[in-house]
Specification:
Elements: H1 4-14, E1 37-39, E2 42-46, E3 54-56, H2 70-79
Antiparallel strand pairs: 1-2, 2-3
């Protein structure tokens, strides 16, 4: 039984809702059905209160609920809609 404790702890951490990883914009759908962007493998949603127009989702780990840097948004937009992994080019 003791050997299962680390395994269970690892599974709980991997499934933590505090940090969800995305690869595509289509994976970023908010609680009210709004679509977001997948930036740096984390979801961000529109927020007019942020200079770049987006705020990290509450499941973005240490970046949660902070405004997304405008340069990150522009990099994604420049890569094209639906870009994978935050706008990097393959």
């Amino acid at each position: 039984m003791r050997s299962l404790v680390p395994l269970v702890a690892l599974l709980v951490m991997a499934c933590s809702p505090d940090e969800l990883v995305c690869r595509l914009d289509t994976e970023c759908v908010g609680g009210h059905g709004e679509f977001g962007l997948c930036l740096l493998n984390r979801c961000a949603f529109k927020d007019v209160g942020c200079a770049g127009g987006y705020r990290w989702s509450d499941a973005s780990g240490s970046m949660a609920n902070q405004c997304v840097d405008p340069a990150t948004v522009h990099m994604h937009v420049d890569a094209g809609a639906g870009a994978r992994d935050g706008g990097t080019h393959d």
